[in-house]
From TrEMBL:
The keyword Transmembrane applies. It comes from the Bacteria. This is Glycosyltransferase RgtA/B/C/D-like domain-containing protein. Keywords: Membrane, Transmembrane, Transmembrane helix. The chain crosses the membrane at residues 21-38, 58-80, 92-109, 197-217, 229-250, 257-275.
Length: 398
């Protein structure tokens, strides 16, 4: 956990604030309770593992596979390792818990406005990445699948996600030290005598990669560190195992003291590489050198405009990659105020509540469109800390 907490992969997702950041915790907890069930055979751990995995139905499409995988692995274990009578009882319990977790999801699908024609339809978010596979020829399917698999496996040490938003564009998902430790840990795991745990971890790595491998996914989206975020616990478990194996080797060759110092140095270098990538390399790769215009507008409003002013937008998205966006400004506000981010106002007739503040970039365009009502408006200009002009703000009392 210590190594993963400094991981660039997790740091970026925690910065984004996207709900996918919870996926590694879901996977880690469900796996933890499952392994504890293997060791102690306590029914409580069986239930906790399945219930934790059930959150996968309600997180993101790539975690739909998590509760199914945990459930099938449990059933397989019970009938292969337990006597028939306890296996039957515990399997029945597992089935009940599985369907309790699934039941709300069935109601969600049923109550969707478009039913199965929504997210799961041909043009839906999930359907568009799965259904086209059914129309592919066998050769095309296996060719694309093998290419996607190769790209995804190489994402750790060779070339990672292309998107500047979730990675240092095209850089490996792991730093060089962690990448080396991952390989050492993988070899060590395969040689491990705890066969059941080894099989579970290896299957977790394979199964949770499947949502990112669909041949229907566009080439530019492969590899994808969002759809593979569920393997983070297993990846960093192997990285930690690799570090432990090196410690044991150094301890045998040079003694405990030197091994401890070497391990601490390796860990420190890993932390440095990840933090440097996050605060320097990644930040400078963001749009407009990580200017963050939404943040400056929100800070200005919080500091200088009282919260009784309703916020409107006459323009948005004039910067690189659609910045600043009305929702981004609204979500960055620390003080609560009325905000209409559902539309861009185009004239005086759109102004419903006073007093109000209007965000716009181009002064001349705004004055031409709002001539009838801005004669008494107070104009303010918003700048970054470095003096870069961000936006105009017009205040109207009535």
């Amino acid at each position: 956990m210590l190594i993963s907490s400094f991981s660039l992969w997790l740091l970026i997702w925690s910065r984004l604030g996207n709900s996918q950041i919870i996926i590694p915790a879901e996977v880690a907890l469900s796996g933890f309770f499952l392994i504890r069930y293997f060791n102690g055979k306590k029914i409580r751990d069986l239930i906790l593992s399945l219930l934790t995995a059930s959150f996968g139905w309600y997180t993101y499409p790539q975690t739909f596979i998590l509760p199914v995988f945990i459930f099938i692995f449990l059933l397989t274990y019970q009938f292969l390792r337990l006597k028939f009578s306890p296996a039957s009882r515990q399997s029945s319990l597992a089935l009940v818990v599985f369907f309790i977790g699934l039941l709300p999801m069935l109601f969600i699908i049923k109550n969707q406005a478009k039913g199965m024609a929504g997210n799961f339809g041909q043009s839906g978010y999930v359907g568009s990445k799965v259904l086209p596979v059914l129309k592919m020829k066998k050769g095309e399917f296996f060719s694309k699948l093998s290419v996607n698999m190769a790209k995804t496996l190489l994402m750790f040490n060779v070339r990672g996600d292309n998107s500047f938003r979730v990675n240092v564009s095209k850089a490996p998902q792991l730093d060089r030290i962690s990448g080396m430790l991952l390989l050492i840990g993988l070899v060590s795991l395969i040689r491990n005598h705890r066969r059941l745990v080894t099989i579970f971890i290896l299957l977790t790595l394979i199964v949770l990669l499947l949502p990112s491998l669909s041949p229907a996914i566009p080439d530019i989206e492969i590899p994808n560190n969002a759809r593979t975020i569920g393997i983070i616990p297993s990846v960093y478990l192997l990285v930690s195992l690799g570090l432990w194996q090196l410690f044991l080797v150094f301890k045998k060759l040079t003694g405990r003291k030197f091994a401890s110092v070497s391990g601490a140095i390796l860990l420190s270098m890993t932390v440095y590489l990840n933090l440097n990538n996050y605060f320097m390399t990644y930040a400078h790769g963001l749009p407009e050198n990580n200017l963050g215009p939404s943040r400056y507008i929100a800070e200005f409003l919080d500091k200088k405009i009282t919260t009784n002013y309703t916020l409107y937008f006459a323009e948005c998205c004039w910067g690189n990659y659609g910045q600043p966006e009305p929702k981004g400004i609204a979500y960055s506000l620390k003080k609560s105020r009325p905000v209409d981010y559902s539309r861009l106002i185009t004239g005086c007739s759109d102004l419903d509540y006073f007093p109000l503040a209007i965000v716009t970039r181009h002064e001349d365009k705004f004055k031409n469109e709002f001539t009838a009502c801005i004669s008494g408006a107070r104009q303010m200009k918003i700048y970054s800390r470095d003096g870069i002009f961000i936006s105009n703000l017009y205040l109207l009392e009535e």
